[in-house]
Amino acid sequence: MPIGIIGGTGFAEVMADEARETELVETRHGIVEVQVGQLGQVDVAFIPRHGPAGNIPPHAVNYQAHIEALDMLGCRRIIATNAVGSLLDDLTPGCLALPNQFLDFTDGRPRTLFDRPGDEIVNVDVTAPYCPELRKLLAREAEKLGLACRKGLTYVCTEGPRFETPAEIRMFAALGGHLVGMTGVPEVVFARELGLCYASVCIVTNLAAGLSENPLTADEVNAVMDEVRPRLWELLTAVAGAIDTEASCNYCSPA
Ligand code: HPA
What mean pLDDT value characterizes the chain? Predict the structure, then answer.
């Protein structure tokens, strides 16, 4: 299974529909239900990040087991989808964005996959936490499909599950953040710890707190996801088809 897809909010159902079978994978950090299927002609392993029923909140997701399960299934490349709020006035709901950096404001999540007694100490390099080659492919295929997709953005990960205060959003903006979400970290870090290529396609579901007149609601997030999902699925299918699964990545796993 060369490619893993970790689907965020609003993706559990479509993944279950597309899957051929469900596989239970027993990892060092727990059991994961993986949906096995195809995107176009390519075999993929799908993991709904918030669980098959979509009811696991961001701070309770087993990020460790998810990445380990994909690694055990042989996925060398992982594409994740993440719903985000936008800190930029001109990046509006419905737009797609590819982060290339993150700011970690999570609190209390596991820091590493190597946290068992006797494990080696791993100080992984995250100079480019999101795979440059996968990002390039995503940007190219999005352009071919005519999907607006902003590149080179910084993703701020909060602990959630509450949304942010406007003061926090002003702070994140002052620190260089462009997107805010609750699920990107530590997922991206664990992928790098195992030398897997990982990229995130962010779906802007709302302007961040304080940037629009209205209070944020989960319904607003879900409504935009419902609208964008078919286009995003098309993008994932195109990218899966464009990946040379025989080649190793020059950046994440140089030969
Ligand atoms: N903040 C945090 N997480 C989110 C948001 C937001 O504004 N929108 C979607 N996920």
Answer: 94
Enclosing domain of residue 214:
3-238
Å from CA of 189 to ligand 1 middle: 20
- The answer as to whether 254 is a domain residue is no
d(CA 196, CA 1): 13
Q: How many domains does the chain have?
A: 1
Ligand 1 binding pocket, CB closer than 6 Å: 83-85, 158, 163-164, 180-182, 205-206, 208, 216, 221
Say whether pLDDT at 15 is over 90. Answer: no
**Structural domain contains residue 255:** no
What is the spatial distance between Cα 73 and Cα 2, in angstroms, rounded to a whole number?
8
* In a domain? residue 42: yes
Neighbours of 110 (CB within 10 A): 14
Pocket test for ligand 1, best of 164, 168, 225, 228 (most atoms within 8 A of CB): 164
Q: What is the dihedral of CA 153, 155, 156, 160, to 10 degrees?
A: 150
- What does the pLDDT look like over 218-244, one tens digit per residue? 888 889 999 999 999 999 999 999 999
Q: Is the pLDDT of residue 111 over 70?
A: yes
Higher pLDDT, 249 or 96: 96
Residue 246 included in any domain: no
In CATH, what number is assigned to the domain containing residue 99? 3.40.50.1580
pLDDT band at 254 (very low <50, low <70, confident <90, very high): low
